Amino acid sequence: MRRTLLTLLGFIFIPCCGAHEAMAQQYGWSKVADLIDLYQTTAIEFADSLNGWLGVMNANAVKAIYKTSDGGHTWQTQLAPLALNVRSISFVNALQGWTVGDLGNAFGYIIQTTDGGKTWTEQRNILHHLYASGSAQTTQQAVTVGRLDSFLVRTGLVARTTNGGSRWQEQRLLTRIDKVEFVDQFHGWAIAVEGDSGSIIHTRNGSLSWTLQHYDREEVIHLSGISFVDSLHGWGISVLEAPWLLRTTNGGKTWEKFYKFGAGGRSALFNDICFADSLNGWLCGNANYNGFVPIIFRTPDGGRSWRLEFADLETPNLFGAVDIVALDQHLAWAISYTGEIYKYGLVTAVKEHDPTPPLTFSLSQNYPNPFNARTIIHYQLPKRSHVELRVYDAMGRAVRTLVNHVQPPGRYNLSFEGSGLASGIYRYTLKAENFEMAKSMLFLE
Fold it and tell me: How would you classify residue 128: left for phi > 0, otherwise alpha for psi between -120 and 50, otherwise beta?
């Protein structure tokens, strides 16, 4: 079992302004979809701000690929040619892309679409070839990596096409290859295993040949993710519970141990890394907050500093957030292992004087969450009601009463700052008429 530890710091919530305060526009993460019928969600890809796909380990059903046309809020199933365990999805544009995976951990498959996923065509189907990751460079060129695992041969695989998938050429090298990423037609990197140790391999000629790149494998061990923004600047994250962030500024000729997680309670286990540019990047994975939950860390300075930007405290999940993709520093998506879709984008303000009354009672997740100074709680009332809004500690004891009086119908935003309570996760509960709802929130310094 994979385990992580993350020190929790305390917080307090004290109202510093009244209701109907408009939230300033800012960027942040929100859960935009919860595909509760999915299990073992593995891969997410976006071609633009609207069109995206996700894949599922779905050996018992024929619909292992899902498509969104509205930026991740709604999803429709797409019919794959077989019951496929999807491992990776990569699109060149909104129409053409490849999906790689396997059937029953035995047959490796590469399938392609040229119409945005309305139809998928099988291009490769080979026994004992277990494809793990793919990267599409152009409509004609794509690379897939994985491993050959039979009774006679165990070796890493690289498959390459330069004619849109009509023909694939295969190379065998090292022991296993897990993830691949290209920044253009020529420059690509992949996470590999050399014997029992982790490695990075690099190509400068579009996968015709690969060279081995080295890092401190004794301390870093194996990598779980890699991300490049150009042919020189890249980062990698290790699989440890207190992982190392690696960085290169020369295309991987040298890799330095750039940042160590775990100091000051910042321990976590990360599944993927994604940089939008040379400064802005994210890590996704899981952490133990009275149970494992999906988390996302962010850096604004090229990896020199990191902060916990999002934690889905309402969704216990052993594996956490498993894949993340960014179009730029203002737009990104991530998925959890159990089908939650998270989106990073502009958080719009609630109108202070909305003429349309709410139709239902509701309590929203505070934003930001986690936070280190100030957070906003939003709720709405469809009619005049006696409202109770209280904060409880982990033992269920009420530690703050935020609202306890009659309020007219409307939309309410309360701003709170943290100071003074004991360390831990707290829950805030709204009661109004017969409505009752609770949410969790977390303060981090």
Answer: left
